[in-house]
Structures are given as structure tokens and as C-alpha cells.
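assembly run, all chains below
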Amino acid sequence: MPNPLFSSAVLTSLETGVNLLIRSHPNSLQSLSDLNGKCIQFSLVDFQHKITLYFHAERIDLYNQDDAHANLIITGSLRDFLRLLQSRHPSEVLFGQGISLTGDIELAEQFSLWLKSFPVQWQHWFAQVAGEDLTQTLARIANQPVDQFQRWKQNSTATCSEYLQEEIRLIPANAEVIKFADDVDQLRDATERLEARIAIVHSRLQASISKQSSSSDMPFKKASSTRNTESE
Amino acid sequence: MNNPENKTTDFGFKTIPTEEKVTHVAHVFDSVASKYDLMNDLMSAGIHRLWKRVTIERSGAKSGHKVLDIAGGTGDLTRKFSRIVGPTGQVVLADINSSMLKVGRDKLINQGIVDNVSYVQANAECLPFSDHSFDIITIAFGLRNVTDKQAALNSMLRVLKPGGRLLILEFSKTQNAALTQIYDVYSFNILPKIGKLVAQDEDSYRYLAESIRMHPDQETLIEMMQDAGFIYCRYENMTRGVVALHTGIKP
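ok done. output:
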């Protein structure tokens, strides 16, 4: 859990910045009245931290509160929330795409509409408030855990497969598997061809046998018909 | 400290008759009221706003709550509580000093905060409210000025609702010896000079520094709260113990 004074200082700065931004965008200020009196809590799962927003007619108050009685709780990772700020279509991120909602869903839609009234990148307006250096640092920090995780994931996957294939030879290499599959396909084709040939040979043989048996039956029939005629 | 036998108490490092403390404290705050906010920012480099923000965050305040802000002075906490409790809640700003109360009321009215805030001039030792009236009581940087702190805690317990929360934000004792030395130099040498320069009142700010040293430490205040009847009493040091936030619940 972060130092309470440090997180309060960060939140104070953020609150000041957000309210400056709201006042500089008349559309946002006007649509804020739709959210007046509401309370939304953001639960950041990667930091185990909750930030509560209290909406008023002309401003928003931000607090670090675990026990706030919020109308709506939005849960997600920091990256998901940054995507939400950057996205031109917040509903692509807000609803079922990394972020979960608990509580007043209608409020979530109102909040989403209100966010659309901020047609700027979060880094752009944050830089106006806090400066370029801090914004770049924050963006780097926000992306750093994700980038690190992805690099770790790639490294782990490569290391694991190399160990299984080269060290303990528990599983074959990819190339070997592909060659084996090709060999199986070829064998299957050859087998089918062979089956077809066998079928042809069998049918010819059957035909040949039938022909032979019918031609060997004919002299017996002639002899028996002659005997019958003589007896009469 | 209070001495019931001799009926004396501390006023900073001085010992004065108990019944005179209220008057002495009143003179201090009559003198500093007009520059109180500015001096707070100068003395604490603005950090007092963060201490108060943490107090709000620990309060559990929500829409519809009734909050009593004792020694609320110029209304920093009242303003924030007013927004949180909303039109269905109420905040009472109470202060024993009429000058501070007036400054606070004017400031809040100028900020448009009028609907759910009321103002009461009251002594924390005998609060003029019915039993079980409030969900939350806060007293920020005021308890050290109260003559009979135990009586004040008893009174706060009475007016709290069962399950209600008390939050005491106050200067306290640092645990670090080096920091204590730096703090003492700052409090007794620099702070009064700032008071003289900005508020034209060196003595009042010397009293404020001395009163911090005479205030009970963290553990002693916990015991006092428990003696009053509060449960789940705990404290949270901020800025290495320069300030402590004590919380307790009425059973």
C-alpha cells in the first residue's frame, strides 16, 4: 500500500488538473451536471488501490477511499484505464474489454458519454498541467509493467521450449514435428493409392474368375443335352 | 498538563489557572484568525492539506451523513465533508472562537457552500447537541487547545451515534531523535519569526509551538479515548509522527 501522504499528494495534483481541464472545456462542464451527486470508485487491481470520484455541479473531488459507498465501481488495471482515456470509443474498453462494472450501469453509460466530451489524449492534457517530463515518466511507468511482462512471457516461453526440446528431449522440435506430419501425409496418400490399386486388381480378378467359371460350365451342358436326346 | 488539585493547567510552557486557559486561547485565535490559512500553508509548506485529506479519506463519510467538525476554524474539513455528504447530509462547523468561526463562515459562503452547513459556537468540553446526533466527529489541530481534553472526549462520545467514528488529527511526538531536534529548532526559532513577519504576532505562534510539546503523545491519547469509552482505538502517524490521526468508534 503506498504512503498515504504521497498518494494524497498525487491525487491532489490529479484533482487540480482534472478540474482545470473541466473548466477549460465548456461541453464537459455542462455535461458534468448529469453526474452531479454521483460517486464512482475506480479499483486498480494491479496496485490494490481504490480511487473514489465525487461528482458535483462544477467539479470533481478525488479521494483514496476503500470504504466509499459508490454508486458504481469500475475495476481494471492501470493500463485498461489509460486505454479508456485514450480511446475515441470508450465503450470498446469500458464494457467487457478488461474493465468490469458493479452497480449502476446507467451511470456507467453517462460516465462514458461524459468522457467522450474530452477529445484529447490523456498525455496531452496531463502534460499541460504537469509538464512533458512528468507525463513521459508516467507514461513509461504505466507501460513499463506491461512491457516487462510481455518480455518476460516471451523469454519464458522460449526458455521453456528450448529446455523441453534440447535438454531433456521430452518433446520434439517444431521442424521435426512438421517433417513427421509430412511423412504421415505421404504415407496416407501412398496407402490410399495402394488400396485403390488393390481394389482394381481385385475387381479384375473377380471378373476373370467369373468368366472362367462360366466358360467351363458350357461343355457339361452340351454333353448332358446330347445324352438326354439319345435317351428319348 | 491539568492539575486538578492546584486548579492549574498548561498554556504552552506556562502554568496558568485552569479557568483562564479558555480566555488565553481565545486571544491567540482572535489574533491569528485572519491569517490562519496563510500561516498554515507557510508553516507546513502546504502539507497540512494532505494531512486533512487523509483524515477525510479515513472518515468513511458518505452521502446523507451528519458530521460535526469541532474546532473547524476556517472550514477546510467542513468544505470537503459538505461535498461528500451532499444535500441529504449535514455538516456542523463548531468552534469556541467567534473570530475563527466568522472567518470560516465567510470563506464557505464565498465558495457557495451554504446548503448543508451550519455554524455553532461551542466548547468541545460540553457540546450543545443531543445524544447520538452525529455519524462522524472530527477535530483537527484543536484538541491540544482544549483545557480538559478528557471532558471533551467524553462529550464527543455522547453526541456520536452508536457505531459513529471520531477522528482526531493533531500534532504529536516524533519517534526519530534527529527529526525531533530539527523539529524543535524549526518550531521554537523559525516558526515564531514567521508569525511575527506575516501575522505580526510572534507570541501566539510561540504558544502554538509550545502547546504541541504539552499535548499527550500517541499512546496516551489512545488511553484517554479508551477511558472515554471509545473502542477500536488506533492511530496513524504521518510525516514520521509530526502529526498523528487517532480514530475510535462509539460502541
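Strands of chain B lie at 8-11, 14-17, 66-70, 90-95, 117-121, 134-140, 160-171, 231-238, 243-249.

Residues 44 and 191 of chain B are 10 Å apart (CA to CA).

not gonna interpret more than that til we talk
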